[in-house]
């Protein structure tokens, strides 16, 4: 059974990955979070989720990928990850060890011993390939969607998944209450040119 739970990021996790939010919009988002009684840790995770959302929104200016395009991209990840994993496993053991030694120390992780680190990377790539297979099998997109408003709804709803996971035990997920207020603040901070009303309605119907 595939693990479908995605760990929530923190601001520190994203420091080198995604640009920070606009200072005024970030302050407004955190003000709403605190007004709704969220803890500092929950506020931090919501900020991190919003940074990811902001990045995704900026990347979608040229058009949101269709479900077909996304499945094709997953298939490519599966193929390339499996090929690189196989190539790593085909290396002489001494070469795997020497590769680790040539990696910049600041980019090394603590996972695995020095001797087996590159071999572990190959194992992680194999797991990545398998995860791509499972994700393609378990996609719940509207496969007939061709673009426009509905695909934006799907895109925005996916971005709210992490927010829902954080607050689902603290507020009712639905229209016209604290959840919509929070989502509107998230949308504003992420640079979405609309409020969250339509996306929440889509979530409630799907």
Q: Could you please describe the fold and organization of this structure?
A:
There is one protein chain. The chain has 206 residues and is mainly alpha-helical. The chain folds into two domains: 11-64 and 147-205, no CATH class; 67-137. The protein has nine helices and no strands. Helix 4 (67-89) runs antiparallel to helix 6 (117-137). The radius of gyration is 20 Å and the shape is elongated. It starts with 10 loop residues before the first helix and ends with a helix. Residues 1-5 and 142-148 have low confidence and may be disordered.
Quick recap:
By secondary structure, the chain is an all-alpha fold. Helix content is 64%, strand content 0%. It has 2 domains: 113 residues, no CATH class; 71 residues.
Structural domain tally: 2
Helix content: 55-70%
Give helix and strand order, one letter per element, not per position: HHHHHHHHH
Strand content: under 5%
Give the C-alpha Rg.
20 Å
Instruction: List low-pLDDT spans.
Output: 1-5, 142-148
Assign an overall shape. elongated
N/C terminus separation: 23 Å
SS element count, helices: 9
The average pLDDT value, as a whole number, equals 79
Main β-sheet description = none
Query: What is the count of β-strands?
Result: 0
């Amino acid at each position: 059974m595939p693990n479908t739970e995605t760990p929530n990021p923190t601001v520190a996790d994203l420091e080198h990955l995604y640009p920070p939010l606009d200072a005024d919009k970030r302050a407004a988002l955190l003000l709403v979070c605190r007004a709704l009684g969220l803890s500092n840790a929950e506020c931090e995770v919501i900020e991190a989720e919003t940074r990811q959302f902001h990045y995704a929104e900026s990347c979608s200016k040229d058009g949101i990928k269709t479900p077909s395009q996304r499945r094709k991209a997953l298939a490519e990840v599966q193929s390339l990850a499996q090929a690189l994993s196989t190539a790593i496993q085909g290396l002489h053991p001494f070469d795997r060890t020497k590769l680790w030694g040539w990696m910049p120390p600041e980019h090394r992780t603590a996972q695995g011993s020095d001797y087996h680190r590159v071999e572990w990377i190959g194992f992680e790539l194999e797991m990545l390939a398998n995860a791509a297979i499972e994700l393609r099998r378990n996609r719940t997109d509207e496969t007939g969607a061709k673009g426009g408003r509905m695909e934006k709804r799907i895109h925005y709803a996916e971005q709210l998944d992490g927010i829902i996971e954080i607050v689902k035990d603290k507020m009712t997920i639905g229209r016209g209450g604290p959840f919509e207020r929070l989502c509107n603040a998230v949308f504003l901070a992420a640079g979405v040119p609309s409020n969250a009303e339509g996306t929440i309605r889509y979530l409630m119907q799907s």
